[in-house]
Design a protein that fits this description.
Largest sheet: 6 strands, mixed
Number of strands: 17
Helix content: 25-40%
Shape: globular
Number of helices: 14
CATH architecture of one domain: 3-Layer(aba) Sandwich
Length: 495
């Protein structure tokens, strides 16, 4: 199932002294999983691409693990939010996240009892229909856990509408020191294989391809063993592996299109329409089968906590855990000359208030970075940023145009195609803030259809998980008769 070919999107990206992550330190291959039991949660109502969910609880109300604490308004492009601890709702307040999202959040104080909602139990019969599976995925609040949080049910429906030929499982976590997906694969390969089968069945295809790094043989071994163990649970599906060179940002969907299919996606093109394939992150695939087999909504995730002082842990934490408690749980040290990054070291965002900044569904890492006194010098026109830009932009030129206020020209140079990968700033010998300048400009140019606040104060659905009513794709939410959820892409973002 694994041929000799090694895929990649750009032969020029790796340089001997910059982005060659194939020679990582031994830490990132260390499999270590610790469970985090926070004393409190701050659970934002907007952790996904779309509009915020609306709180379903009141201050003073007791909640259990798995209970729905935020639900979409009828007809809105949103997903449910669930509690990862049992305890009392202490506050419902506005929060600001490092990514610029402003929304309400439900604050919960733990009772230390870890009481689950009574409806959460392993499912005795996992032989379910595509419609039932789609209902489970929607009600579990599952979103893309490797990036921007596109609701998984929306990607399923988009793939069905476009008539894709195969399901791709993205196992290409390529940022240095971030290895949460690797742990999820090696620790839960059976769930990933079965989740991939369920997604393929829902989409209506029989071909499944796992995209893996050529340096991570353990992933392939784990997945192949899982295929053998679970072979009796399904029939008629074909599995294959596509081996990719260890490069960054290898797993981005545009890079996958270029490497795997030889297609360069335009600004409004999608993987589904252009390449007839749909891509799901491996952690998302796990979450889908976790919801089917164990009846668990998406209320926790594995993430990597890493730093330069010896920290290096993969942890399983409830979504909404404050970063400060996360660091305390793994003996993290925050000195005055260190910076906390909400995410991985290249694409993450600096945070200033770890006590009030929680992890969310799309947080794959928390990184401690040593502060450096970086001086900014004039561009020396070395071309390193051009050579290493995976989107084939000219970051130095685009940055100059933006700084000079020549915004139309910057746009013509393709500024809005920036994916904020950080490669150009990483290799710049002049210390220019290329990524932040271009990415900020690109964000202002994209027409957003996402609103920050909901007009509804509270939705009364009672003490439920929403997992109780998956049958026939029915739920407490308004559902269209054709089982579709339309992506709000008119003038907005394409995936």
């Amino acid at each position: 199932m694994l041929g000799d070919r090694r895929y990649s999107f750009n032969k020029r990206l790796i340089t001997d002294n910059a982005l060659d992550f194939s020679k990582r330190s031994s830490f990132v291959r260390e499999v270590m999983l610790e469970k985090v039991y926070p004393t409190r949660l701050i659970v934002p109502m907007l952790q996904h691409y779309g509009v915020p969910a609306v709180p379903t609880v009141d201050v003073g109300e007791y909640v259990t693990i798995g209970q729905c604490i935020g639900a979409p308004e009828p007809g809105s492009f949103s997903v449910p939010i669930h509690s990862g601890i049992s305890g009392t709702v202490t506050d419902i307040r506005d929060v600001s996240l490092p990514n610029g999202v402003k929304c309400r959040a439900v604050c919960i104080e733990s009772d230390r009892k870890r009481t689950y909602h009574p409806s959460i139990n392993p499912r005795s019969n996992v032989q379910i229909s595509a419609s039932e599976f789609m209902g489970i995925v929607k009600n579990a609040g599952i979103v893309g856990m490797g990036g921007e949080g596109i609701p998984t049910i929306a990607k399923i429906n988009r793939a069905r509408a476009e008539g894709v030929n195969e399901v791709l499982v993205n196992c290409l976590q390529s940022e240095p020191y971030s290895y949460s997906d690797f742990l999820r694969i090696t620790d839960s390969a059976d769930y990933i294989v079965m989740g991939a089968v369920a997604l393929a069945g829902a989409v209506g295809v029989r071909r499944i391809r796992f995209l893996v790094s050529s340096t991570n043989g353990q992933e392939i071994t784990a997945l192949q063993a899982a295929m053998q163990r679970t072979a009796g649970e399904y029939s008629g599906y074909s599995f294959d592996f596509a081996s990719f060179k260890s490069r960054f940002p290898q797993g981005y969907y545009r890079m996958v299109a270029k490497a795997l299919y030889g297609k360069i996606l335009g600004e409004n093109d999608t993987l589904e329409s252009t390449c007839h394939a749909v891509l799901f992150n491996c952690s998302t695939v796990f979450a889908c089968w976790n919801a089917v087999a164990d009846g668990l909504p998406l209320m926790s995730r594995v993430l990597t906590v890493t730093g330069e002082d010896g920290m290096g842990h993969n942890v399983l934490a409830p979504i909404g855990t404050p970063v400060s408690e996360l660091l305390d749980s793994v003996n993290g040290k925050l000195e005055t000359n260190n910076t906390i990054v909400w995410g991985s070291c290249l694409t993450g965002l600096v945070m200033n208030d770890p006590d009030n900044t929680p992890i969310i569904k799309t947080t794959s890492a928390v990184t401690i970075v040593r502060d450096a006194d970086v001086h900014e010098y004039p561009c020396i026109h070395c071309g390193s940023c051009i050579e290493n830009c995976p989107m084939e932009l000219e970051p130095g030129i685009v940055t100059t145009l933006i700084r000079q206020g020549r915004y139309d020209e910057a746009d013509q140079e393709g500024a809005r195609k920036c994916i904020s990968c950080g490669a150009c700033a990483y290799v710049c010998p002049s210390g220019l803030p290329l990524t932040s300048t271009i990415a900020s400009f690109a964000a202002t140019k994209r027409n957003s259809v996402v609103s920050a606040y909901s007009t509804t104060e509270k939705i009364d659905i009672g003490s439920v998980t929403l997992m109780e009513a998956y049958d026939g794709y029915a739920s407490a939410q308004e559902v269209k008769e054709d089982d579709t959820m339309v992506l709000p892409f008119e003038g907005g973002k394409f995936i």
